[in-house]
From TrEMBL:
The keyword Transcription regulation does not apply. This is Peptidase A1 domain-containing protein. Residues 452-470 have a biased composition (Low complexity). PANTHER family: GLYCOPROTEIN 38, SH3 DOMAIN PROTEIN (AFU_ORTHOLOGUE AFUA_1G13610).
C-alpha cells in the first residue's frame, strides 16, 4: 500500500515546466550571443550543495552531453577561455567512451571526460537540483575559424536533446542506459517536468533581448503561428526570399525570391537542421553568394566571412528598415500554407571580435558550408534569433516558428510559460498577423517617407485572428474526447494511479501497445514498433531517420514511470485543444 500511495503522489504531483535563467553576459567572437546560467557541482551527499556549486554560463545546443570548460583545459589558451566559468569535477569519471565532438559548421573540436555532477537549474522563482547528471568536462577544445585562427571557445555548451544522428546520443531519460543522462531527461524522469521536451528562443544579445528556454514546456510569448512541425530534427527549406514587412522596400529590386540554390547553383529546396550550436547560416556557397549580391556585403578573403560594407549608404538603411530575409518551410502536416520565418536584417548585423579579428567588424552570417554527405545544412544561432524551436522527445516532434521581436518589454509578446504534455504533437500559439511588425516597431525605421512609417502602425489587421490553435493531429482532437471527460479524468486520476501502480507489472506490455497506438497516430510506425519514418513532405529529398534503436529502448522506461498519464489520457488535461475554449 505504501508503494501505491507513493506512486499516486508521484503521478499526481504537479509536474510543471521549468524556465531557465539567462546570463546578463553576452559572448562572441561571432555574436554577440546570449547564454544560459546554471549551477554545477556537488552530489547527493552534499550537506551544502550551494557552496559546492559554481555558476556557469553555457551556450544552448550540444551533441551528446553538456560540455563544460575545466581550468586545466583553459590553461593552454588565452584569457578568453573560460569567460563563461570553469568547473573542475572532483567525482570519479564514468566509464564511457570519451565523447569527442568535431562539428564542422561550428568549427569546433572538443574532447572531454564524462563525470557525474549535480546541476541546479531554473529561475529565481523556481529552481531544481538534479543529481548525477552526466557532464562532460572539457579536456581539450579548440575552434578553428574560417580564417584559420585557432582559439578556445569562451564557454561550453548545454545539451537539450538537440541530437539526431546515431552518434548523438542524447535521447535517454533513464539513468543507466548507454546514453548520457542529461538535464532535461533527468528532470522528466524525476517527475519534475511533464515531458522530455523544450522550447527555445535565443533572443538577440545585440538588442538586449534575452533568450527563453523552458524545459518541459515553452513560452507562448515567443512564438507567432502558424508553425511548421515534423518528425525528427530535419525540416525542408523551400526557398529564401528578401522582402519588407511594412512600408516601401529599401531594395532597388523591391523583393527577391529563388535565392536558395543547391551546390550546383540550381534553385532547389534543401533538407536543413535548425541547430543552436553552430553560429551562422551554413548553406551552399552559391546561396550565400546569391544573398550577398543583393546586399551591401562582400566576401572578405582575409577573414573568409561576408562583411557588411558599412560605408555603403544602403547598409544602415537596410539594417534599420523592416526588411527581412524570409525562410520558407513546408507546412506542418495537415496545413496547406508554407511557413515563412522572417529574420530582420537588424539581427544579421553581427560582429566579429578578437581573436578572429583584431578590430570589431560587422559580418553577414551566411557561411558557405562545404558539407560532407554525412553532415547536414544548418540554420544556426543567427537564424534562431528570429525563430522558435521546440522539440518533444516522446513524440519525436520538432516545432519551428516565427519568433516575435523584442516587443515593448524585451520579452517578445510577454512571458507566458506553458507545459508541453508528454504526448504533445501540437502547441497553442498566437497567430495574429500583426504581432510580428508590432513586436519590432521600436527597432524599425521605415524607408524614406514619413507617410510610409505611419503605415507601419496600421498594418493590415486580420479580423479572424486572436489566439488560435494549430491542430495538426485530428486523431486526438477535442471531438474525440469531450470537455466533460477531461473533468472526470482529473477526478479519477488519484484512484487510477493506485490501481495502476498495483497492476503495473502485469499490464506493462498492453499499456505499451496502447500508448503507442494512441499517442502517435499520425506517424508511421514500422511493424516492429518504434521504427518511425519521417513524414516526407517534399519530393526527392532523403531524410535522415530517427535513431530507431533509441525509440525501442526508451519505451519500456516510459512504461515504468509514465504510462499511466498516457493510457488514462490524463494528458488531455494539459492539452490546449481541450482546456481552452
Ligand atoms: C553517498 O553516500 C553513500 C553512503 O555513504 C555512498 O554509498 C554513495 O556512494 C555516496 N554518493 C556519492 C555520489 O558520493
Ligand atoms: C581534435 O582534437 C584532438 C585532440 O586535440 C586531435 O587528436 C584530433 O586530431 C582533432 N580532430 C580534428 C578533426 O581536428
Ligand atoms: C537564477 O537567477 C536568480 C536571480 O539572479 C538567482 O537568484 C538564482 O540563483 C539563479 N539560479 C540559477 C540556477 O542560476
Ligand atoms: C514583389 O514585387 C512584385 C513587383 O514589384 C509584386 O508584384 C509582388 O507582390 C511582390 N511580392 C511580395 C511577396 O511582396
Ligand atoms: C562599399 O561601398 C562604397 C560606396 O557604395 C563603395 O565605393 C565601395 O567600393 C564598397 N566597398 C566594397 C569593399 O565593396
Ligand atoms: C550593427 O551592429 C553594431 C554592433 O552592435 C552597431 O554598433 C551598429 O550600430 C549596427 N548597425 C546598424 C546600422 O544598426
Ligand atoms: C510553397 O512553396 C513552394 C516553393 O516555393 C511553392 O511551389 C508552392 O506553391 C508554395 N505553396 C503554397 C501553398 O504557397
Amino acid at each position: 500500500m505504501a508503494t501505491a500511495i507513493l506512486c499516486a503522489i508521484r503521478v499526481t504531483t504537479a509536474q510543471q515546466n521549468l524556465a531557465v535563467n539567462w546570463s546578463s553576459n553576452t559572448y562572441g567572437p561571432d555574436g554577440p550571443w546570449n547564454a544560459i546560467t546554471i549551477n554545477v557541482g556537488g552530489n547527493q551527499n552534499s550537506t551544502d550543495i550551494e557552496s559546492e556549486q559554481v555558476s556557469i554560463d553555457l551556450l544552448v545546443g550540444s551533441y551528446y552531453a553538456s560540455y563544460i570548460p575545466s581550468s586545466s583545459a583553459c590553461r593552454a589558451y588565452g584569457p578568453q577561455c573560460g569567460n563563461g566559468g570553469v568547473w573542475d569535477p572532483d567525482t570519479i569519471p564514468i566509464k564511457q567512451p570519451p565523447p569527442n565532438i568535431w562539428d564542422a559548421p561550428s568549427f569546433i573540436n572538443i574532447t572531454g571526460t564524462v563525470y557525474p555532477g549535480a546541476v541546479t537549474i531554473g529561475t529565481a522563482g523556481k529552481q531544481q537540483t538534479v543529481y548525477d547528471v552526466d557532464l562532460a568536462s572539457i579536456d581539450t577544445f579548440s575552434v578553428k575559424y574560417p580564417n584559420e585562427v585557432t582559439a578556445a571557445p569562451e564557454l561550453g555548451f548545454f545539451a537539450l536533446n538537440s541530437g539526431m544522428d546515431k552518434e548523438i546520443r542524447a535521447l535517454s531519460d533513464a539513468k543507466g542506459s548507454e546514453d548520457p543522462w542529461i538535464v532535461a531527461g533527468s528532470l522528466y524522469n524525476q517527475f519534475i517536468i511533464p515531458s522530455y521536451s523544450y522550447g527555445l528562443q535565443i533572443g538577440s544579445a545585440a538588442l538586449n533581448y534575452s533568450g527563453s528556454l523552458v524545459l518541459g514546456g515553452y513560452d507562448k510569448g515567443r512564438i507567432i503561428g502558424p508553425y511548421t512541425s515534423c518528425a525528427g530534427y530535419m525540416t525542408t527549406l523551400l526557398d529564401i526570399t528578401m522582402d519588407v514587412e511594412t512600408g516601401p522596400s529599401p531594395f532597388s529590386f523591391g523583393n527577391a525570391s529563388k535565392l536558395l540554390t543547391n551546390v550546383l547553383g540550381q534553385p532547389s529546396s534543401l533538407s536543413v537542421k535548425p541547430d543552436p550550436m553552430p553560429p551562422g547560416l551554413h548553406l551552399p556557397a552559391q546561396t550565400c553568394s546569391n544573398l550577398a549580391q543583393k546586399l551591401p556585403v562582400y566576401y572578405d578573403s582575409t577573414t573568409n566571412y561576408y562583411l557588411w560594407n558599412t560605408s555603403d549608404p544602403s547598409y544602415e538603411q537596410i539594417i534599420n528598415s523592416p526588411a527581412y530575409l524570409g525562410f520558407q518551410f513546408t507546412p506542418a502536416p495537415g496545413d496547406e500554407a508554407n511557413v515563412t520565418i522572417k529574420v530582420p536584417f537588424k539581427l544579421l548585423n553581427l560582429t566579429l571580435t578578437s581573436p578572429v579579428v583584431t578590430r570589431p567588424v560587422q559580418y553577414f552570417p551566411c557561411i558557405p558550408f562545404d558539407r560532407t554527405p554525412a553532415d547536414q545544412w544548418r540554420l544556426g544561432r543567427a537564424f534562431l534569433q528570429a525563430a522558435f524551436l521546440g522539440y518533444n522527445t516522446h513524440t519525436n516532434t520538432m516545432w519551428l516558428a516565427q519568433a516575435p521581436g523584442p516587443g515593448v518589454a524585451n520579452e517578445g509578446l510577454g512571458l507566458e510559460p506553458q507545459d508541453i504534455a508528454n504526448s504533445a504533437t501540437t502547441l497553442e500559439v498566437y497567430s495574429d498577423k500583426t504581432l510580428f511588425a508590432d513586436s519590432w516597431a521600436g527597432h524599425w525605421t521605415a524607408t524614406k517617407a514619413t507617410e510610409a512609417s505611419n503605415s507601419t502602425s496600421s498594418a493590415p489587421a486580420d479580423p479572424t485572428s486572436t489566439t488560435t490553435t494549430n491542430e495538426h493531429q485530428p486523431g486526438i482532437s477535442g471531438g474525440a474526447i469531450g470537455g466533460a471527460v477531461v473533468g472526470v479524468v482529473a477526478g479519477i486520476a488519484i484512484i487510477a494511479a493506485i490501481i495502476f501502480c498495483l497492476v503495473r507489472k502485469k499490464s506493462k506490455q498492453s499499456t505499451l501497445q496502447q500508448s503507442s497506438d494512441e499517442g502517435l497516430e499520425d506517424t508511421e510506425i514500422g511493424p516492429e514498433r518504434g521504427f518511425r519514418k519521417q513524414q516526407s513532405t517534399s519530393e526527392g529529398y532523403t531524410f535522415l531517420e530517427m535513431p530507431t534503436d533509441h525509440e525501442v529502448e526508451e519505451l519500456p522506461n516510459h512504461a515504468e514511470s509514465k504510462e499511466l498519464p498516457t493510457s488514462m489520457r490524463v494528458y488531455e488535461l494539459e492539452s490546449p485543444l481541450n482546456t481552452r475554449r
